[in-house]
Write a structure and sequence with these properties.
Elements: H1 7-21, H2 30-38, E1 43-44, E2 47-48, H3 53-67, H4 74-88, H5 97-109, H6 114-123
C-alpha cells in the first residue's frame, strides 16, 4: 500500500526548507496544496490514474511545483517532498545536488509529460 505525506508534514517540510535555504514562509493557498497532495491518489472508475509509484511521485512533484501553494520555495519544497514520499515507500532518490536542481528547473520550465518526469525519477531512484 502506497504511503503519502500528510498536509502537516508537507507544511513542516516547507518551513524547514525555507528556514535552511531562505525565502518567505507560509501557505499561499491551502486549496492548491490539498489539490497537489491529492493528485497522486486520484482515481477514475475505481482505477488509479497514476498506477505506479513513479507516476504518483511525478504527479506529486509536478503539482507541488506548478500549483505554487506556498509563498516561496515551491520547487525546493516539491523536491524535498518527493524525497520524503520515496522514503515513506522504501525508496531513495539517488541524484547529485546539481541533477536535482536541473530536474526541478526542467520540470517547471519545460513542462514535460508526467511520464517523462516519472522516467527521470525512476532512473534516479534506488
Amino acid at each position: 500500500m502506497t504511503k503519502y505525506p500528510t498536509m502537516d508534514e508537507v507544511v513542516a517540510i516547507h518551513f524547514r526548507v525555507t528556514e535552511k535555504t531562505g525565502g518567505s514562509q507560509g501557505v499561499r493557498n491551502w486549496d492548491l496544496l490539498a489539490s497537489a497532495l491529492g493528485r497522486p491518489q486520484a482515481t477514475f472508475g475505481g482505477e488509479d490514474l497514476y498506477p505506479d509509484i513513479f507516476l504518483k511521485a511525478a504527479a506529486l512533484v509536478q503539482s507541488l511545483s506548478s500549483n505554487h501553494p506556498f509563498v516561496d520555495g515551491n520547487k525546493r519544497t516539491a523536491l524535498t517532498t518527493l524525497e520524503y514520499f520515496l522514503y515513506l515507500n522504501g525508496l531513495q532518490l539517488k541524484a547529485t545536488q546539481k541533477e536535482k536542481v536541473n530536474f526541478t528547473l526542467w520540470a517547471e520550465n519545460e513542462k514535460p509529460t508526467i511520464e517523462k518526469i516519472a522516467d527521470w525519477i525512476k532512473k534516479h531512484t534506488k
